[in-house]
Amino acid sequence: MRNNLQCALAALLCATLALCVGCGPHTVPVSGKVIVDGQPAENLRVVFQSAATTATVPPVAIGMTDKNGEYSLSLAEKKKRGVVPGPYVVFITWSDPNAEENPVEGVTVANESPYKLPPRANSGEMSFEVPEKGTKEANFEFDSATEPKPTSVGV
User: Fold this and answer.
1) pLDDT digit string (tens) for 52-88?
2) Which helix (H) or strand (E) holds 63?
């Protein structure tokens, strides 16, 4: 009788653990499009970093734009699709698909970005509120003709 009870408890424990593995935080689907100077921008890394000020900060989410400028986000650490709802700071940078690491110097050599991304794209100025049900409208558009020009400091 005791053996049966132990087996039943062990089975219950295994089932509970199996359900919890990969559970992680509750995420919702987030996708959008990045347009630069009227054209879809390919190979841009879109990063959502939580702006929450709570004790439990949601993980970073990352996506890459395709040839249509479209991306969808996944949690960086767990590779789980989606994002935890809440406020985020958004960073967008170009990621050279042809970058090569120099094995001697340990430095990655990348080509210059084909896009004129303004400083605000990677300064922490941009934000996005992820709604409870997610969104397909996390869109970002940049127009170099209307973006403020960076100021230079004279010597």
Assistant:
1) 887 778 899 999 999 999 999 999 887 799 999 999 9
2) strand 61-64
154 is written with which tokens?
């004279």
What type of residue sits at position 95? S
In the structure encoding, which two tokens stand for residue 136, read together? 């397909």
The helix/strand count (H/E) of the chain reads as 1, 11
Give, for 91, the enclosing helix (H) or strand (E): strand 86-94
The answer to pTM > 0.70 is: yes
Distance of CA 96 to the CA centre of its chain: 17
Judged on CB neighbours under 10 Å (0-12, 13-18, 19+), 126 is: middle
Contacts of 120 (CB under 8 A, 6+ apart): 126, 147
